[in-house]
Write a structure and sequence with these properties.
The protein is α/β, with parallel strands linked by helices. It has two domains: 2-63, Phospho-2-dehydro-3-deoxyheptonate aldolase, domain 1 (Alpha-Beta Plaits); 83-337, Aldolase class I (TIM Barrel, Alpha-Beta Barrel), CATH 3.20.20.70. It is built from eleven helices and 15 strands. The strands form three sheets. Strands 7-8-9-10-11-12-13-14 form an eight-stranded parallel barrel, surrounded by six helices. A four-stranded antiparallel beta sheet has the order 2-3-1-4. β10, α6 (191-198) and β11 form a beta-alpha-beta unit. The radius of gyration is 21 Å and the shape is elongated. The structure holds phosphoenolpyruvate and manganese (II) ion. Phosphoenolpyruvate (PEP) binds at residues 102, 128, 184-186, 207, 237, 269, 272.
Length: 338
């Protein structure tokens, strides 16, 4: 439920509403806009009688939130959230492209990647330093050394950096280098990890789980927001289906559905969605046309030698060509890019 205060409501009247919410055992969530102040009432308790609030002085109206994800919902916040990261903004009119290799493998590989993606117009450099691999025998990442290299490359080429964090005990370490903390698909329902990133103020890229419904995904975002961090971007990266020609199946309709249900920005990952380099371009363009606020694309200076996800990684020249096409699609749907 949301309590909308009258525009002339005093601080004292708003405080009285907050106090009442706390006394009832709920968490108040204050949001002071230019025109109006609204107080959200979040928690799981007895059904509240709206009349109890409607009768209070300074209260204009009561709006029920019917969906289970509260803070994440458009019912709670009408305006789209814009997530700021190192000078770049995701969720506004500009389409943001994040790009780079699957994993940080060496300084040379990252420097070449950063130079190529920055030149083509990407704003954020990706690269995993902690890699959650299906097999324990696969390359697990360069860890802190990888984070250092990634940050150095980002700083050198004017790119923010996004990298995955896989456990609560490494959140502070990863946050000390990264501008965006990525929660991978396999960790979407790792609730202690969600709580840990929720306690930071860093931007978070929350990937959709391999087998997760949109509602489960939004409930995971709710964990982050309810722990105090509003800077969440949602990333659709394909879900499991019976189809074998692609690595996963991109749920393109998730883009407009989530934009309707939630105020959070939506990013699409065409690389993990398809698993195939030749499909990345078409899927990227489709995602932009469907309303995505950003893309995250794997690019490797030498994909045949990549330690992970080579078959889906674009060559730098392919990425540069794709960026020109993406800009045209972005312009066609009223957005800027680059
Ligand atoms: C990644 O982006 O490197 C990754 C592992 O993706 P996902 O979690 O979506 O599989
Ligand atoms: Mn990958």
């Amino acid at each position: 439920m949301i309590v909308v205060m009258k525009s002339e409501a005093t601080v004292k009247e708003t405080s009285a509403v907050i106090k009442k919410i706390q006394v009832m055992g709920y968490k108040p969530h204050l949001s002071s806009g230019e025109q109006k102040t609204i107080v959200g009432m979040v928690g799981n308790g007895e059904k509240v009688d709206p009349d109890e609030f409607q009768a209070m002085s300074g209260v204009e109206s009561i709006v029920p939130i019917l969906v289970p994800f509260k803070l994440v919902s458009r019912e709670f916040k009408k305006e789209s959230t814009i997530v700021a990261l190192n000078g770049t903004k995701v969720g506004g009119n500009e389409l943001i492209v994040m790009a780079g290799p699957c994993a940080v493998e060496s300084r040379d590989q990252i420097m070449k990647s950063a130079e190529a993606v920055a030149k083509a117009g990407a704003k954020v450099l990706r690269g995993g330093a902690f890699k959650p691999r299906t097999s324990p025998y696969s390359f697990q990442g360069m860890r802190e050394e990888g984070l250092k290299i990634l940050r150095e490359a980002g700083d050198q080429f004017g790119l923010a950096i996004v990298t995955e964090v896989i456990s609560p005990d490494t959140v502070d370490l990863v946050a000390s280098y990264a501008h965006v903390l990525q929660i991978g698909a396999r960790n979407m329902q790792n609730y202690s990890l969600l709580e840990a990133v929720g306690k930071t103020t860093k931007a978070v890229l929350l990937k959709r789980g391999l087998m997760s419904t949109i509602e489960e995904w939004l409930m995971s975002a709710e964990y982050i927001l309810s722990n105090g961090n509003p800077n969440v971007m949602l990333c659709e990266r394909g879900i499991r289906s019976f189809e074998k020609y692609t690595r996963n199946t991109l749920d393109i309709s998730a883009v407009p559905i989530v934009k309707e249900l939630s105020h959070l920005p939506v990013v699409v990952d065409p690389s993990h969605a398809t698993g195939k380099r030749n499909l990345v371009g078409a899927v990227s363009k489709g995602a932009v046309a469907a309303g995505a606020d950003g893309l995250i694309i794997e690019v490797h200076p030498n994909p045949e030698e990549a330690m992970s996800d080579g078959p889906q990684s674009l060559y730098p020249h392919q990425f540069a060509d794709l960026m020109l096409e993406i800009k045209n699609i972005a312009n066609a749907v009223g957005r800027t890019c680059g």
